[in-house]
Structure formats: C-alpha cells, structure tokens
Amino acid sequence: MSSWLLLGGGFAAFFLIRTLWLARPGLPMAAAMQALKSNAAVLVDVREPSEWTSGVAHQAALLPLSDLAGARQQWQNFLAKHRTKKILLYCHSGSRSGQAAAQLRREGYDAINTGSLQTWRQARWPINLPRPAQ
Question: Which residue ranges form the domains of the chain, and what is each CATH number?
C-alpha cells in the first residue's frame, strides 16, 4: 500500500514540477514588447473565449489552447502566416501558455511563454477591455 502511495506522490510531484517549469516566462517583458513593436513577434492569448471578457492585451490574436490541441481551425492559418516570427503566448496564469509554447517549439516554431495577462498589465502594455453588449 505504501509503495503505491509513494508512486502516486512521485507522479503528482512530477506533474507539478512540469507544470511550473512550462509556466515560467521565457523572455523579459521589455524584450517582448520591443519584439512586438518592431514586428519581429506576434502575441497570442491562449485563454478560452469566455475568459477574454476580462480584457485582452493589445495586438493579441485570440487563439484558444483547446484549438491548438484539437482541430486547429483557428491556429492553422495563423501559424502559416507567422512561421518566421517569434510567437509570444500568454494566458491567465502562464500555465496554458507554457503548454502551448512547448507544443509549438516541438513543431519548430520560435514560441515563448510570456506568462499571464496580469504580467502584461503590470508592464503597462495596453489592455483592450470588451465592449458592452448593446
């Protein structure tokens, strides 16, 4: 019984460490903002559509992680168009953008996790708030 508990705890620790490792931002914000301003990079919000109502970083393409992991109906044309640029990704906490960055790097893209929407807010990058329904 205790060896199963140890094994389960080991797997839990592995996935926690893996998630934290993927979630780490991979580029200083000043460099990320400069890359966007010089058109050397594109910014992607990988949150789900229901989360975009809290605001979206200026210039961010809205491409959910679920589509990247699934049919890629939204991601396919975006990736083809921006093949030679850095792809800067963010989400709510930095975890999903870390997963997306890792997936895209495995496919040969220059993808970088920039953390969370809050990171962009703290860097004073413009945040576009949703317009109220009329």
Answer: 2-128 (3.40.250.10)
